[in-house]
Design a protein that fits this description.
Elements: E1 3-6, H1 13-28, E2 33-37, H2 43-51, E3 58-59, E4 73-74, E5 78-79, H3 84-94, E6 98-102, E7 108-113, H4 114-123, E8 128-132, H5 133-140, E9 142-146, E10 151-158, H6 163-169, E11 176-179, H7 184-192, E12 197-200, H8 208-217, E13 220-224, H9 228-234, E14 253-254, H10 259-269, E15 273-277, E16 283-288, E17 299-303, E18 319-325, E19 339-342, H11 348-358, H12 365-378, H13 389-402, H14 406-418, H15 425-431, E20 433-438, E21 441-449, H16 453-458, H17 460-473, E22 477-484, E23 489-494, H18 499-505, E24 515-518, H19 523-537
Parallel strand pairs: 1-2, 1-17, 2-3, 5-6, 10-11, 11-12, 12-13, 14-15, 17-18, 18-19, 21-22
Antiparallel strand pairs: 4-16, 6-7, 8-10, 9-13, 15-16, 20-21, 22-23, 23-24
Length: about 550
């Protein structure tokens, strides 16, 4: 199984580039991983990926357990043209009490249970056979003497009367299936009457003259090891399994469906077995409600976050192998010990750079460029108060490998990220948005990097209205910090009810919308801790 590596929702440059760089490192040291993103990348990240010619990782919607992850009875199905006997054998072998039926394109056409088979054997017409000759041969454990037809339909007769009586009283026809031993007069009469099939009990051997006559008249003959009574009782099982009064529209489960939703559905329906199909309607097998239904959880490695609220949907159903993060310890717990790498540095990629050096893996130019981009982004070109000497050291080394000038490249990347042209209010808020659980409260902090504050001010009422709307939905407080790296500070916008919280968080004598907060640039070190401290004190 491939291990997925990803950052938080609303991915920023650190979460995306760290995922890619770590995946490369893991694969170079024998792992099988793939980087993923949990949302659309921003302009800054797009600039970095395009500059270093690295493709955008594929999108990961969730890691919830799906039916395709379950060890259900794969291939527990049978062709609708197989015999009832063969269906029963498969059900015994698979230890199932029902079986889906498929056509020649594997499309689900019906569903038969043991109960329905039993009803058919008790109440079904025991004198008519409609099936293939191969099904009859399989059911009766017979061998072929002569064979001319693929399909056999007819009435079953047992030659229990005297030969003379049969010839005088019974009009045989191509619609008849005759069970007869080595009674040559009856055999000759049956062959001359062009019966559809002759079944010989106890593997009776025929005279070559009789066989030649049967070949001339194109009469099918088989010989079974069973006696006449056994053949008469068992031949009904050779009929097509589709001939049973079956359920043509059973309740199915798609292999892409979530396992939890399947279990919820079974409480309402209360069936024991469910055919599994794919999006093409093809049957893949059968899942039993009472089966072990074991599954392998999706393996994941988290970077740049360790909070459930910021991570992929269904994380509680995944197997977390490792976390690499530079934020405070969040609420993610695991049932087993894992590798948890945490360090008070400005960027996750700084730690990943150190992992390359520890494991003596050469850093390619493109991976160096991505890690450098992440560091410059998270530390605001190494000016943020979160910046450490480790960040600066890694940035210099990575810039040398990537063959770029830190200041020049950093400003180009910043320009790419600061443009808000053509973006809606909601898009801008969610570009770099993080949620934090504080007791029974939910805090949302959006950070926008731009030097174009005038365009935001022109539409500030729309921003406030959106924040108020988000609070009505589920948040206690939602804020936007518009960070201007040149002025070394941030403008703050907040939902109406949060004015007092923002004022207390930053020790302000008064507060107003879009107020500039000097030297407030780091969400991790200055914004989030201050607000959480006030919320926890309420």
């Amino acid at each position: 199984m491939t291990t997925f590596i990803f950052g938080h929702k609303n991915p920023d440059t650190d979460s995306v580039c760290s995922s890619i760089a770590l995946s490369y490192l893991k694969n170079e040291t024998g792992g099988k991983t793939a980087p993923k993103v949990l949302g659309n990348i921003n302009n800054e990240t797009k600039f970095a990926l395009e500059f270093f010619k690295v493709p955008v990782p594929s999108y990961l919607n969730d890691v919830r357990v799906r039916i395709k992850n379950i060890k259900y009875d794969k291939k527990a199905y049978i062709s609708e043209e197989k015999s009832i006997n063969e269906a029963f054998k498969v059900m015994q072998h698979q230890n199932i009490t029902a079986i889906p039926l498929i056509d020649d394109k594997k499309k689900l056409t019906g569903y038969v249970t043991l109960k329905e088979i039993a009803k058919y054997l008790i109440n079904g017409n025991k004198e008519i056979v409609h099936t293939t000759l191969d099904n009859i041969i399989e059911t009766l454990n017979a061998k072929v003497i002569t064979k001319f037809d693929e399909y056999i339909s007819g009435d079953i007769l047992i030659a229990g009367l005297q030969s003379k009586t049969i010839q005088q009283e019974i009009d045989l026809s191509p619609h008849d299936i005759l069970i007869v031993g080595d009674r040559y007069k009856v055999l000759e009469y049956a062959i001359e009457s062009h019966v559809r099939l002759i079944i010989l009990p106890l593997n009776v051997n025929l005279d070559k003259k009789i066989i030649k006559k049967a070949e001339k008249n194109k009469v099918n003959i088989i010989a079974s090891e069973l006696d006449s009574f056994q053949i008469a009782n068992k031949i009904l099982l050779s009929n097509f399994v589709k001939s049973i009064n079956l359920n043509k529209s059973p309740i199915t489960i798609n292999n892409e469906d979530y396992y939890t939703e399947f279990k919820n559905m079974t409480h309402r329906v209360n069936h024991s077995n469910y055919p599994v199909v794919n999006n093409k309607g093809e049957c893949l097998g059968l899942i039993k409600l009472t089966g072990p239904n074991e599954y392998e959880k999706q393996k994941v490695i988290l970077v740049d976050h360790n909070n459930f609220a910021q991570s992929v949907d269904g994380l509680d159903e995944a197997n977390i192998l490792e976390i690499i993060d530079h934020h405070n310890i969040g609420d993610i717990g695991t049932s087993l010990p894992i590798n948890f790498r945490s360090k008070p540095v400005g960027c996750t990629s700084t730690m990943i750079y150190e992992m390359y050096k520890e494991q003596h893996v050469p850093i390619p130019k493109n991976m160096a460029g991505l890690m450098l981009s992440a560091i410059l982004s998270d530390t605001l070109l190494l000016t943020s108060p979160t910046t450490t000497e480790d960040d600066k050291f890694a940035a210099v080394k990575l810039a040398n490998i990537a063959k770029v000038d830190i200041d020049k490249y950093g400003m180009e990347m910043l320009k790419a990220s600061s443009s808000i042209e053509g973006k809606s209010v909601e898009e801008l808020i969610k570009t770099d948005f993080k949620s934090y659980v504080v007791g029974d409260k939910l805090l949302g902090i959006s950070q926008i990097m731009t030097m174009d504050i005038e365009k935001i001010e022109e539409n500030i009422d729309a921003y406030i209205a959106k924040l108020n709307e988000m609070v009505e939905d589920k948040y206690t407080i939602v804020t936007i910090f518009i960070t201007d790296i040149i002025k070394n500070g941030s403008y703050v916008i907040y939902n109406d009810a949060a004015a007092g919280i923002i004022q207390d968080s930053f020790g302000l004598k008064s507060i107003h919308q879009c107020m500039f907060l000097p030297k407030i640039v780091s969400r991790k070190k200055q914004i989030q801790p201050n607000i959480i401290s006030v919320l926890e004190g309420d």
